Every structure is written in structure tokens, then in C-alpha cells.
Amino acid sequence: MKTIVNSWNEWDPLKHVILGRADGCCIPASEPAVDGKVPEDSDMRGKFGVRPKESIDRANELLENFSNLLKKRGIKVDRPTPLNFIQPISTPDWKTKSMFGTMPARDIILTVGKEMLEATMSYRCRWFEYLNYRPLLKKYYEEDPNMRHESAPKPRLTDKSFHMDYLSDKIGVQKRLEWTAKKFFVTTEEEPLFDAADVMRFGKDLMVQHGFTTNLKGIDWLRRHFPNHRVHALNFPGDPYPIHIDATFTAIKPGLIINNPNRRLPNEQREIFEKNDWKIIDAAQPAHNEPPPLCFSSVWLSMNILILDPKTVCVEKSEVYQAEQLSNLGMEVIEVDFRDVYPFGGGLHCSTTDVYREGKCEDYFPKQK
After folding, report:
1. Cα radius of gyration (the chain)
2. Tens of pLDDT along 265-289?
3. Residue 294 and residue 47: Cα distance in Å, rounded?
4. Distance between CA atoms of 206 and 79, rounded to whole angstroms?
5. Taking the model in full, what pTM does it have?
6. Residue 13 carries which DSSP code?
7. End-to-end CA distance of the chain
8. For the structural domain made of 14-357, what CATH number should be given?
9. Active site residues
10. Helices marked H in the chain — which ranges?
11. Using an 8 Å Cβ cutoff, are 85 and 100 in contact?
């Protein structure tokens, strides 16, 4: 079957997806973006190198099980081609000891309609991560005459792209929250930066989180690149480590969003949703008090779910409160064993990126300011 690229939102029926792999994934060495993101009390601080083989094997087992589940529901699943991540990489501006991995496909590739766009990325260790997906994108380009393969300008990521104030290991959560409220993040406005996972797609509107991995210049670049879309910057001041929107603000179906209750959307940014009769409700509490060992992400991966269609959703099987909430909202909940994949870069939504969803570009926010 030839590939057709088409995906405009997070909820139309999913028919074709890319799912990441855990092979050779590394704990990255110290660099500005990593040091700014990893919590001061994290067990990852000071560690570097390939993750333990048993954890890689376990993550790959769960990813394969997830792949088989999707295939049984009629969804085509493609997988990236992993590089050798435990090797030094460099540009004329910097060197770092290793790459990151290729589990969270959502971070790298943004699908908007018939276009698949490689994000800039803001971690040096992830600068070359797009190469894992090039064989697939090449294939899609050859098979679909309407597919557009685009790549955002690669950033230099010199020290000028980062606020070095964030590199101390004694900042503390309270200071981070104060900085987040002031929209002072580890990334500067030296050059456009964005991760694909900071973009939530709502048809004609793209909601983009401004935070650690996406700056205002990155949002402006997206606005210029997608002139037929409306691109909106969102902030979540309750998050001391604002990286990627999909554990904070998750669209379930037209008219309904769950929002992390610790990271609520500010009132002034809720207007566009309220004007257009979208309901924003607090997400259920996570089932866990702490993330798994050696994990970048917070316990709020509980709300990192994958919508298969407006009535069906995949939820990590131990996240019983999130599953119960979505069931009460009228969704069929598919439980997926995935918690041991979390340390490799995220949850069910993070691990995938859309190739094809049925549907077309619609205007879900006709009432603008």
C-alpha cells in the first residue's frame, strides 16, 4: 500500500503512524539544554552513557507490543532506523559526547496536513536525530506525490542560545516557577528553536507552547512557515520544567481538552477556547508519586495519551485515574503497558508521530479576537 501523508489534528481516525525504538538510547552528557531541564534531585544528574541493556530490552518489548496492538486495529506502523548513539558528535560550534536516541518520534517530526516537518530541536545531543527518520520520509516522498518533506533551519546552538543562569544545580523549584511566570526560560531568542512536541494541532489553528524547548522566534518561524494557519503561543506558569505540551494540555476531541491542574492555562489565554465553546477540564491525578528511575519526564505522563479516533484512546495501563476519567467522558479506553518506556523520552503520544489520519483541515476556532 502506497503512503498517503495527511493529518490535521490529534483526534481524527488514525491509520498510519511512526513509532519509535529504544535501541542504544543514551543518558546524554552535560550540555546547557540538558542541564537546564534535568531536576536538581534527579537520579540522572551526573550520569552519562548508554542506558542499561535490560531496560532497553524491556522498552523495546513494550514498544513492539504497542505496535502489534495498533496493527490489530488496522493502523499501519513504521519504525525509524536507529543510529549509533554512543558516539561523539560536533559542529564547528560545539562538541558533545553522545546523541540521545529515537524513541520519542513526536519530538522530531511535525505532520501538518500533507507536510512532514523536521523540527530544529534545542538539545545538542538531538541535533542529528532527524537522520533516524530520513529513510521513512524519503520513502513517503517517493510514494506520495503530494507529500511535502520540509526541514526547519538547523540552529547553531552556541552558548548564546541558552541562559547560563539555568545551569546551576541549586536553583530550586520556587525560583524556577518564578522564572517560568516571567517567561524566562533556559533558551534565549538568539535563533529560532522549536521541538515538534510543543505543537498541538487543531486543524486551522496550531497551539504552541513557549518554554524550554521552543522560543518566541521558533513560534514566529512556524507562523511564517504556515501562513494559512493561525499560530498561537501558550504558556503554563505552573510548570518549573516546561518542555513539550502533551503532558500539560491534551485535546481529546472537538470541544474538549484536559489540562494539567498544576499547570493551568492562564485566564487571558483561555479566551479563544471559551469563545468557541471548547471545554477545558482538569486532568485526573497521576497514579504514581514519582517517575520511573532515570526518567526525564514528570509523573504527568499519565495524560500523555494517544487518541485513535474521537471515541477511542490509548492510556498507560497503570494510570487508572486517567483511564477512569476518559471512560467517564464516553471514551473507549485501551490499556497499554508502557511505563517502562517512559525513561526513553515519554509516553504513548510522545512515542508516535502521525503519518495519516482520516479527515480534512477544519476551522475549530471561527471566533477569533
Report:
1. 19
2. 999 999 999 999 999 999 999 999 9
3. 9
4. 26
5. 0.96
6. P
7. 44
8. 3.75.10.10
9. 195, 244, 350
10. 32-37, 53-72, 105-108, 134-143, 173-181, 216-225, 267-275, 320-328
11. yes
